[in-house]
Amino acid sequence: MVIDHPHEKFILQVYDLLYGSQISEQNLEMVAGMNLEEGSFAIMDESLRNYQLAFLKPVLTVGKNSKTCKKLPAFFSQVREISREDLSFITTPSTPFYLGQLRSGSKELDFDIFLPGKEVFSHHVLIPASTGKGKSNLMSCILWDVAGKEYAGMLVLDPHDEYYGRNGKGLKDHPRKDKIRYYTPVNPPPGASSLKINISKIKPEHFQGAISLSDPQRQCLYVYHKKFGENWIYHLLNEEKIQNVQFHEDTIAVVKRKLISLLGLDFHDGQLSAQGIFDTIAGESTINDICRELEQGKIVIIDTSYFSGAIEILIGSIITTEIFERYKFYKKQGQLDDRPVISIVLEEAPRVLGTKVLEQGSNIFESIAREGRKFKVGLIAITQLPSEIPKNILANINTKIILGIEMNSERQAVIESSPQDLSQDNRTIASLDIGEALVTSTFTKFAVPVKIPLFQEFVKQQKNETVQRSYVGFQ
Asked: Scanning 60, 122, 238, 465, which has the fewest C-beta atoms within 10 Å of its C-beta?
């Protein structure tokens, strides 16, 4: 809502609706009872005596510039509905990405909302929502929009194989197909690549978050890697002795069993062979190729729908560690400003950022959540259970695109870690319909309600698809 003053205007948000009446509670109950018994009972001046109350909170004052509201409007000020003209102070940033149209209640306003992409993606994004509220649709729209821009590269770990659109509409249909790279382990379609990773590229730190290891098992991995370098897995499986270092035979046996099971290896008579995506011969350049494509501002989709969660996390960890190390090096060399922002899309984020996982030790995704923004590497964490992510990590995620959340405990976790004050928006978040969102960010002046477009409609709008028919004599 808007209140106009001579030199400024107030923008206010309705956060609650209640019934009000000049008739006492006792008399209202009597009227209800009479209607129940007699069938009809009229109140004199019903429309004057009964009304609805809307509770509003001031959000912004807009004058020569806009700022957070720290005062109240005058008594009995006229309140009106907001219009497009009232939002002229919201400008399009230099590196925009499109989120949707501004929403007032369930009504869409003809006003597009853009966020500053470079800053938002490097400072992390959280997308919390219950099942069926439109998380995948939102992510598809974001990827489609960013694919047409040059300022960001995105690594998408896709456990449902839904973003590329192998069997339907997806990123493969984008006008900038050259910016979309797709890696899949099974029957890659034309233009895609087969996903193979050489085991020599695996390092002990990549297993953090993928599988649980005790301290002796973890030390075993690090010692063999330090001693034998890229061939450490072969030497460990061969149980080669290391001078002045001894591990219990049970520790070696458990580590061997975990590596063989996770990586799909076969070790027999000193010969190492592999089945699946990890290979002893192929895949030497896969990680390097993916990192190079990310540095070129491309969207790289990894189809992980054929893998267990542990292998998916391991693949993500290998690629993410490599790109993060590269960006750290560029920062030291003073070359970071020339590089695009890199954003890592994590479905079911608590698998790598959850409290229980981090109790077993830090991993690359936690490191990026804490310090990635300094190196232009950020996360997009998608989850149904934000309460499982520690508060200190939630606080580091500076943009939250909140879709409908049914559970009160999950709403509270998001509300308590939001950049803006959402203490009165619990009911609002609970009542968000499919595709409706509340965006709270350090890069917006206030918590912005938006309507996310349906992906199929968004694609048509972006491609400006118009059907033209020609008839003789008509033009």
From this structure: 465
